[in-house]
Amino acid sequence: MRIRVVYGSSFGDTADAAGRIAATLEEHVGRPVPCHDVAAVDLGSLESVGLLVVGTSTWHSGDLQDDWAVALDGVTARDWTGTNVAPFGLGDQRGYADTFIDALADLARAFEGAGARLVGAWPSAGYEHASSRAERDGMFVGLALDVEHQPDLSQERIERWCCAVLAEVEPLAPVSAPRPGPRAPRGP
Ligand SMILES: Cc1cc2nc3c(=O)[nH]c(=O)nc-3n(C[C@H](O)[C@H](O)[C@H](O)COP(=O)(O)O)c2cc1C
Q: Which residue among 35, 58, 65 has the greatest number of ligand 1 atoms within 8 angstroms of its CB, and so is best to mutate?
């Protein structure tokens, strides 16, 4: 299965998280996972990808990051049937407690509305926000990261989320399973 990571980032936080997610996925699948800035990628080249990880920060009290806002018509104009889309979002749960990672909802729904299967829902317990459009029934629609207030939790969250996403899209191929080595000789 081809895997790609695409992000929109205004000041680098989401770009940094996307790079870490790509590196974590690479470790698990044992091959390169390319990571693209949405401002520079041809969305058409991503249509045949099996697992597409998409990341956005939230700006202007609940809006998509600017580069995703520009690219959104290109997302909804395409048919993503057959693509698993795993969304992640960066936000500020204290400074913007009422619109925490709202953009994650918009990005996820754009892909879902165009045929994608969403994967990677993430528990909303452990965050201090008041409300989020990306949350329903105790789950965010994807991974939530807050590098302002919970920077120390990001790496562990990324690792757990990547394992869960891979298990969801490749349920018969356990992640991090050791490669079978030569069989030990049987004893008497
Ligand atoms: C003016 C401004 C508006 C913001 N609005 C929101 C918001 O509505 N919801 C939220 O969760 N975070 C909000 N944030 C926080 C950013 O999403 C956060 O800093 C993020 O890490 C930025 O990532 P980026 O550098 O990849 O764009 C806002 C930040 C600023 C400076």
A: 58
